[in-house]
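Lay summary. Proteins are chains of building blocks that fold into shapes, and those shapes determine what they do. In this project we predict the shape from the chain. Here is one chain we studied, written as its sequence of building blocks.
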Amino acid sequence: MYENILFDLDGTVTESAPGIFQSIRYAMDRMNVPLPDSLDMSVFIGPPLTVSFRSILGLSESDADRAVSFYREYYGDRGLFECRVYPGVPELLTRLRAEGRTVALATAKPETFSRRILDHFGLTDRFTFIGGASLDASRRTKDAVIAHVLPQLPGAFAENTIMVGDRDQDVTGARNNGIGCIGVLYGYGSAEELAGAGALALAEDCDELYLRLCE
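And here is the predicted shape, written in a compact code that computers can read:
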């Protein structure tokens, strides 16, 4: 049974697409950059935004940084609350804590936004530690966030610690830090994406996720 559990936020705890997509549209309007009609916006959920703006939209490094600033204008005011908590997540977190397990957040979303979201939904007290990206470039990737979180969890070893997430970055970030990952299928990644990245198991919903966390 896993004693230390790291949860991703977007696509794992919260269904956050509406606010993220609106923030991206706002940023691109400010940049006068058109978004292709055929673009699947879900590709922006998971990776650091600067990486996505450069690789998906072809922005230069400086323009990608400007786009992130515009994104945060909207997201920090409205977008971060344009989301909902997935069904069963609060109950799952409460059950895990009641069993004496350590529950932490490990998200590539800036930590300041993540705390505001958890506060808004009354979930902050479900987490022993809340770890997210920094607003500067010092801690941006999922690898770096997990590396930041793990030392804060006394007694966290490879055999008793697991990451839970919905994208391949969660799986590879966990592996690069010496732990495994369970992929959730109710988020934004597919079974093929998660299995292909090396997820140890997949879960359709919170009930199945709990069973995977007890194996």
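What the prediction tells us: The radius of gyration is 17 Å.
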